[in-house]
Amino acid sequence: MVENNTDMQANRRKGPDLLIKTLRWLGIFGWFVMIAALYIIDMAKPEEENMFTRKLAVSVRKTWDPELIQYLFYLLIFGFCISVIGIVINSRRHHRKDDRFRYILITLGVISFFGIIKYLLKF
After folding, report:
1. How far apart are CA 99 and CA 92, in angstroms?
2. Confidence label for 5 from pLDDT (cuts 50, 70 and 90)
3. pTM to 2 decimals?
4. Would you place residue 48 in the very low, low, confident or very high pLDDT band (cuts 50, 70, 90)?
5. Which among 115, 111, 102, 114 is positioned nearest to 26, based on CA atoms?
6. Dmax (CA) of the chain
7. CB of 106 closer than 8 Å to CB of 85
8. Contact between 72 and 41 (Cβ < 8 Å)
9. Fewer CB within 10 A of the end CB, N or C, for the chain?
10. Residues contacting residue 91 through CB under 8 Å, at least 6 positions apart
11. How far from chain centre, in Å, is Cα 93?
12. pLDDT at 15 > cutoff 80
């Protein structure tokens, strides 16, 4: 008689299935969105005055660019949605001992969430 049935069950997985591949691509795509958001932050921030702009009497923007900040807000929402979808898929798929959570999606969600909150409180 078999006392422990879990020892007899074989691992039927033959490699990463569609959900695992989807999680990997969601993480990669989410971080591309975050890199684009960082680029927009760099472009939207106020310009710094230096000795060349003073000498050539070039005017510099002293405030944040509101149009770019709005694009940033949409990117953060998109990144947050990607993160939530990935976390939901990961929690549904997390059944076996060798399954693991994708912390990269959690990190993406936290960064996006705090960026959204900062936008809503600041503007």
Report:
1. 11
2. low
3. 0.75
4. confident
5. 102
6. 90
7. no
8. yes
9. N
10. 101
11. 20
12. no
